């Protein structure tokens, strides 16, 4: 039974080979830098110290700035992907990570770290979240609705597998080679896409070639506004899309807050370095591969996306609470084991959103909901950075170094409450334009 589902899932993924292969190389390249970045940044900004308040605040500021711009950029990229095609937008988004890591490969001084943060912030604004949104829209163009949940789970499974490989490379490669290897892989991705990835959206011919430059700018701005207003109307008129927006807002508020401070927290409390980070991240990734590629495709037809989403949110709460209350160095490893379950939040929500929107609005809807998530990601550091720094310092009002992570877990409890009220099977009314804008690639 399991083998049969795996073979069936692989057959569904055959048309997506030229999408998944370059994305896997991109994810491997990004993952292998995560565990070493904390050591590099801390050494540059706070030499000889294990706790670096400046690094925590800069990371929080970066996340806030990214969140502010992503509120506009994510829906915009989703709309552009619907209008101009998935391929050009994927090429742009996957290329932005090359430049910040090139700076650290060249030099790791304090000044270079500041330059890295500026370039990485720009990169995150363009690529963070948008790569997944556009990739999901690409999948929706090709895969039939009934098979999308399994396809999304395989994609997020490959994402986790890529992170495991990236973390293993980081664990065993000397630190001086990590950024160089990462850059090579990051360059390979867009080159592969450029030559081999097929487009799935037919571009509408331009009718305003003789318009003046000012008229074109005005028309583009008006069109973007109308399209974003339409996306908002689609989401808020649908109980399912409206509900999943609340779920993702509170989930992202908690999880992005935890992610922004977690590695600094572990370094300050338990003295972890890149080796421990790699072990924990690899542990999460291996469990996530199993749950997304094997468990979700088997469970989804039996219980549905809503039940899986609630289970994943419950696991994310346990994940946060264990980290926040960690009393020994082995507890973070126990907490990381829940990553195998909470990782299912992503494919479950992609499936709910995809079912709740028409085929011509996939990129627009995914982009708008991702924009809602970005609002949460910009708000969380405003509380998490100062709260984490305060409770890691000697001025803390009581001894609970992970108090900020416990607070973030409360936000995920609220997300679980909204998830329990969801009815994922509700759909939008049939859109006659679906028949007009059929994807170019569709399996018979």
UniProtKB/TrEMBL annotation:
GO terms for cellular component: membrane. Residues 19-427 form the Major facilitator superfamily (MFS) profile domain. Its main location: membrane. It is found in: Membrane. Keywords: Membrane, Signal, Transmembrane, Transmembrane helix, Transport. Pfam families: MFS_1. It is a multi-pass membrane protein. This is Major facilitator superfamily (MFS) profile domain-containing protein. One of its GO terms (molecular function) is transmembrane transporter activity. Residues 1-31 form the signal peptide. CDD domains: MFS_SLC46_TetA_like. The keyword Transmembrane applies. It comes from Salix brachista. The lineage of its organism: Eukaryota, Viridiplantae, Streptophyta, Embryophyta, Tracheophyta. The chain crosses the membrane at residues 89-108, 114-139, 151-170, 176-197, 246-268, 280-299, 306-327, 333-353, 365-383, 403-422.
């Amino acid at each position: 039974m399991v083998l049969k589902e795996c073979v069936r899932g692989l057959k569904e993924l055959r048309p997506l080979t030229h999408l998944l292969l370059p994305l896997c190389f991109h994810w491997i390249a990004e993952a292998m830098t995560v565990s070493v970045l904390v050591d590099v940044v801390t050494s540059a900004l706070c030499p000889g110290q294990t706790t670096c308040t400046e690094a925590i605040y800069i990371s929080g500021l970066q996340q806030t700035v990214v969140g502010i711009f992503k509120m506009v950029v994510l829906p915009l990229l989703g709309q552009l992907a619907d209008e101009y095609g998935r391929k050009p937008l994927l090429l742009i988004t996957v290329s932005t990570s090359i430049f910040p890591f090139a700076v650290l490969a060249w030099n790791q001084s304090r000044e270079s770290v500041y330059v890295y943060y500026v370039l990485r912030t720009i990169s995150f604004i363009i690529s963070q979240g948008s790569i997944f949104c556009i990739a999901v829209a690409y999948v929706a163009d090709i895969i039939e609705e009934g098979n999308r949940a399994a396809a999304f789970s395989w994609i997020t499974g490959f994402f986790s597998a890529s992170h495991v490989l990236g973390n293993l490379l980081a664990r065993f490669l000397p630190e001086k080679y990590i950024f160089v290897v990462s850059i090579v892989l990051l360059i390979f991705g867009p080159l592969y896409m450029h030559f081999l990835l097929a487009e799935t959206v037919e571009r509408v011919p331009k009718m305003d070639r003789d318009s003046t430059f000012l008229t074109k700018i005005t028309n583009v701005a008006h069109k973007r506004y109308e399209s974003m207003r339409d996306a908002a109307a689609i989401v808020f008129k649908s109980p399912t899309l409206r509900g999943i927006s609340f779920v993702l807002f509170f989930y992202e508020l908690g999880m992005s807050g935890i992610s922004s401070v977690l590695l600094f927290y572990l370094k300050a409390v338990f003295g972890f370095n890149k080796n421990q980070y790699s072990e924990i991240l690899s542990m999460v990734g291996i469990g996530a591969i199993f749950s997304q590629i094997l468990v979700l495709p088997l469970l989804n037809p039996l219980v549905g996306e809503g039940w899986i989403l609630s289970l994943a949110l419950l696991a994310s709460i346990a994940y946060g609470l264990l980290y926040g209350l960690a009393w020994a160095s082995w507890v973070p490893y126990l907490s990381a084991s829940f990553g195998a379950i909470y990782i299912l939040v992503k494919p479950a929500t992609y499936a709910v959103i995809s079912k709740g929107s028409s085929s011509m609005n996939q990129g627009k809807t995914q982009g708008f909901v991702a924009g809602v998530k970005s609002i949460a990601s910009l708000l969380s550091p405003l509380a998490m950075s100062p709260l984490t720094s305060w409770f890691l310092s000697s001025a803390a009002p009581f001894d609970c170094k992970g108090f900020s992570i416990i607070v973030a877990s409360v936000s995920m409890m609220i997300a679980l409450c909204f998830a329990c009220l969801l009815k994922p099977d509700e759909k939008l009314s049939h859109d006659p334009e679906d028949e007009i804008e059929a994807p170019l690639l569709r399996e018979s």
